[in-house]
Amino acid sequence: MKNFFFYLATFISVTFWCTALNAQTPNTASPSSDTTKYLIIKNDGNEYVGLILSDDGREVLIETKSLGKIYIPKSDIKSMRPIDYAEDVAKGEFSSAGVFTTRYQFTTNCFPIKKGENYAMVNLYGPEVHFAVHKDFSVGVMSTWIGSPIALALKFTRGTSNPKINYGVGTLLGTSGYLNQGRGFGGLHWGMITYGDRRNNATLSVGYGYFNPGNNSWSPTVYVPGTYAAVGNGWWPDIPVDYSYQGLDKSSFIAPIIGLAGQAKVGKKASFIYDCMYIIGSEKSTYAQVNQTQTPQYDANGTLQQVVVSEWTETVFSTTNYQNLLVIMPGMRFQRSETKAFQISLAGVIVPNEVSFPLPMASWFYRF
User: Are 90 and 231 part of one and the same domain?
Assistant: First the structure.
């Protein structure tokens, strides 16, 4: 009987010890019975999709299809939600909001380009490419098919405590390149705020643009002052030209710009894109008008004897012309895969009190 109680006590002690040990050790060998997949977005913008195997309050263990099991500290997680298969999954593969959702037709929004999701866009007027150098900062290059003009694009974005509100700033710095010997330059600087998520959002932006074509001088025909004798039987003399004179003729364009853009998901692979810009433009011109006289002198018989060329004088004029433009760019984007998309826009330019004209656009997106 004593042996029976001894074995019973031993069995209970071992069983209790094994149960306590198992409760203290995370269960990483077998997955949870919950088969719901979750989308986890980290603070650095990286996204993970998989089954949650354990959650001890400090970190989450998930099992992904491509990376296997990953521990993610809870402090690094921005959001975590179950995947809505009717909305998020196409052909059995999760389709998160990709890099193409960071822009519209011409303008951009406050969602950052994630590291490793750089993209290029090829359109009718030229190519452009954009790189993520930080979770909130991207750099791009834009040009035409002849390689000039060329512009550097910079964008910095930040989120807020409300996941649907983001803000950012951007700038374009351009040069005329080899056109006009690189003398032309311009820029566009703006701030923006975006409401919504990557699939359905609207962005309000306010910016300031300027452009200087670099044509600051011209060479009018100015003659060397003096008295010149007639040639032969009263022919007009050959008066030398003063090629050292450079007349003033420069212009610059400035334009405050208000933009309103947005996109709405209308299908698993299609989105409606809307881009609109109201441009309050003005052109300031400064130019010089040269005044110089050539006075012929004749003898009593009416034969030309000489020509007197006066000193030249210069009068400077300045004018400012105002012209507002409304650019409307509605379109559709069709995303064929995670790395490719096609976008078409039936854009138009409306010039108040002037002629308006269409400006159709077609763009091809490639992620790399």
Answer: no
